[in-house]
Amino acid sequence: MDHEIVGRDEDIVKLAYSMAIGPYRYREMFDLLGTRLDAALDMANNGSEPVNGPALDEDALKSAFEPLEPHFENAQSLMDMQGRPSDSAKYSMKMIDADNHPSALIGADGRIVYANSAAEEIFGLAKNQRPDESLFERGHFKTLLSQLESLDQFELNKMISIFGMESADGDEMIKVALTKVHDSDGHAIGHISAINISWFPDVGKQFQKLLNLTPVELEITKAVVTGQSLSDLAAKRGRSVGTVRHQTKTLLAKLNLRSQTELACLYSGFSKFNVKGQGSEKTDSSETDGRESGHVLLRQNGRVLDYEMVGATSAMPLLFFPALLGGMTVTEEMRRALNQHGLRLIMVWRPGLSNSGWDGPIGSDSFARYADDIKALLDELGIKSCPVIGHITGAMFAYGVAKYLPGRITGIVNINGIVPMQPGPHLAKVDRAERLRLYLMRHFPKIGRFVVHGALAKVDSGYDHEYLHAFLGDNDNDQSTIKREDIRTQFRQAFQQTTRQGYDSFTNELTLASGDWQYLIDDRLCPVRNLVGQHNLHYTPDVMQSFAADRDNYSVDVVADTAHLLLYQRPDVVFEAVADLKGKQV
């Protein structure tokens, strides 16, 4: 192996060990592994992309990844020793959204990286755009840009400056603080937020007494804290601006402070008001969506199957195998569509997810074992036959129960369902990130497991929004959907529920996805309808249509103006497709 490759090995190994103790550099590590896979595939295919997808040269893959496996195994042990990370991201998108006051992350170039709804509404802040200079007090905008360009000179998590910003409607002047923080990848970034420093006469008197301030000095303190300009104070007191400025400098020297910002911070700390303005995160009860929750089926072999139901008990039953991302999220629009089409959703967790018990080692008989669980559940509920929905990775299990319970499953509707990574025209069209995840799980499971656990640790650390925004890509359909408060809240709850028994529930499912399960599709007997989002990034319409070519009773419908989160964008289309199957219990 040449010196350049060895150097890259060292970079990847360092990132792996870094990830073992903190989640910040996940994206950097993932990209380097992707570059390594690309190089190995290019070597095996002489730089071309075969019609049936890239050939896998075992020697090229071993040369690329085998030297890394011991290091990733060690890093995994370190990560396991650390335990599950806590939700500790102070300046994540989640915490910014939870702030009731305007709050945003801003890059060194002065462009907004992320803003909460209050900042969008009050200041008109928008992603990838600079704030409107006209909203700032004179000279403040230039100062902000200058300080952002030199963020490295400031201390982390320390307030740098306070600015005056006028609301977009011109009704209010608001004090805004700039703080240096770290983003989800560990890079320095600015955090601007409206500060909440209220002036109470009684607190002011205590502050004056403690620090031995004169009445004039107290008046100056009040002006600085409440955002009143020194020129306005001078006019109010009938003094020149120069006199008030001199008095202000004398006050700062007396208190051993260097700026008006430090004076505002000193008063804020004294008054015990929260300068950063962080609000409490909103929570949502699972009972608000009308579902019947908390169902478990205890098998005679001691296995537990966890499931939930939504919809009228008299409606047509419909099995639902949820995606790992989003889990059993049910929106108001989904419930309305269920009622409209007379459907009852029976949402079933798979082995190791939520409270469902593990069913043994991952292997070729995993789908048959799960089908046996589903048969027991249908018997328990008195359901002779019904259709099934498979959501993303849940599609594998929809095919599995259809194969092993041919008389019980009347049809399949898959929502952005995955397809096997077997050679074929579709394989060349699967996107790079998905290829990497599944190739690693199949050929280098020690590395693959660490990559999956690293991503989940980042979510657990509080960077769920950041991970979702990166995973869903730069398309308006998914990005606007994930901004919905009900979606964000339920996705967060779903992650905690899905990983209740640890991260290996994800690892096991992706191991199955990376294996050979095409026989489930080749042997199916019932009709299959695949709904794919027009802008889905991973299993695109092109991928699905290539896979479906020449397959009987296997259709692909592209749903316009939707993407990865199609289920939540157009639930009416999804449940109409189920109703069209005409699959009813006997």
Present the secondary structure layout.
Layout: H1 3-21, H2 26-44, H3 58-65, H4 69-82, H5 93-98, E1 103-106, E2 112-115, H6 117-123, H7 140-149, E3 159-166, E4 173-182, E5 188-194, H8 201-211, H9 215-226, H10 230-237, H11 241-254, H12 260-271, E6 292-298, E7 304-310, E8 316-321, H13 332-340, E9 343-348, H14 366-381, E10 386-391, H15 394-404, E11 409-415, H16 432-443, H17 445-460, H18 464-472, H19 476-482, H20 485-498, H21 504-514, H22 518-522, E12 528-533, H23 541-548, E13 554-559, H24 566-569, H25 571-580
Parallel strand pairs: 8-9, 8-10, 10-11, 11-12, 12-13
Antiparallel strand pairs: 1-2, 1-5, 3-4, 4-5, 6-7, 7-9
Helix pairs in contact: 1-2, 1-4, 2-3, 4-17, 8-9, 10-11, 13-25, 14-15, 16-17, 16-21, 17-18, 17-21
What does this structure look like?
By secondary structure, the chain is α/β, with parallel strands linked by helices. It has helices at residues 3-21, 26-44, 58-65, 69-82, 93-98, 117-123, 140-149, 201-211, 215-226, 230-237, 241-254, 260-271, 332-340, 366-381, 394-404, 432-443, 445-460, 464-472, 476-482, 485-498, 504-514, 518-522, 541-548, 566-569, 571-580; strands spanning 103-106, 112-115, 159-166, 173-182, 188-194, 292-298, 304-310, 316-321, 343-348, 386-391, 409-415, 528-533, 554-559. The strands form 2 sheets. The protein has an 8-stranded mixed sheet with strand order 6-7-9-8-10-11-12-13, with helices on both faces. Strands 2-1-5-4-3 form a 5-stranded antiparallel sheet. Strand 8 (316-321), helix 13 and strand 9 (343-348) form a beta-alpha-beta unit. The longest helix is centred in the first third of the chain and has 19 residues, at 3-21. The radius of gyration is 29 Å and the shape is elongated. The model is unreliable at 1-7 and 272-290 (pLDDT under 50).
